[in-house]
Protein: Alpha/beta hydrolase
Organism: Agromyces lapidis
Amino acid sequence: MTTASLAASAFSVPVAGGALVGGQWHEDAAGLPVLAVHGITASHRNWDLFAEAMPERRIVAPDLRGRGHSNGLPGPYGLEQHADDLAAVLDALGIDRAYVVGHSMGAFVSVRLAQRHPERVAGLALVDGGLPVPSPAGVAAEELPKLLLGPALERLSMTFADRAAYLAFWRRHPALGPYWNDAIEGYVDYDLDGREPQLRSSANADAVAVNAVELDGRGGYTAALAALPAPVDVFRAPRGLLDEAPLYPEALVAEWAARVPALVTHEVADVNHYTILMTEGGTGSVIPVIRARIEAADTQEGAT
């Protein structure tokens, strides 16, 4: 992997309250583009390896409202606002329809996009996300983000003296440190905001808190998921945000597959919630399925 392969062409588009920014790769590629939607404390740099492995497709990946270089945008930060922001991105970049791939909370946003703007979505893939996560009994709503996100949330209240300190923090992360590569380092470096010695994560803690409590399927989300047209590929990581228990136990995925006939489930071996996209082994398992779906969607688009 070269340094150049990690570089995206930046864009900035008008949305409610200001400008949403992000990156895109392979802008001149023909056929259906891919709209890639990152997770709850992430940024478009989550998709570096994915984009490198799909040179035949235009890949568009925004920094969601309250994250990355879109962190100055005001609320509301709910899933429906994110979905409308994505539609605005497609409008501004001249894209009528896209194949949408969402990771983690980005998968929930992708489902809302398909519900609110179905004409813009040519197909949908959910990568270790998008299926409602039951709230544990007895856990208050304000405690849910900490329970779900662990160190990923902890960093939002921390400051760092320099970039080296921030890299060291992430190298200690059990789900990223052991699998460190150039893509992870680029993702971490992009996340920094502010100036030394008061550097901090670019993710807005208020935005994260809003979205964390939406992951249980409230507000009509479950109905939106159930109404999706087939096929919708769901990729499960067998290990979770701390490289231990999965975000989605096998039984929960099986339950949702039985409830929603459109879902086609895939187990991705030997990855966690992050490395399913941020290692070559993870993307190498996910992309062949997605590539085949996009090619089929391309054929269908050409026939209509």
User: Anything to note?
Assistant: The chain has one domain: 4-136+206-303. The domain at 4-136+206-303 is CATH 3.40.50.1820 (Rossmann fold). Residues 92 and 131 are 29 Å apart (CA to CA).
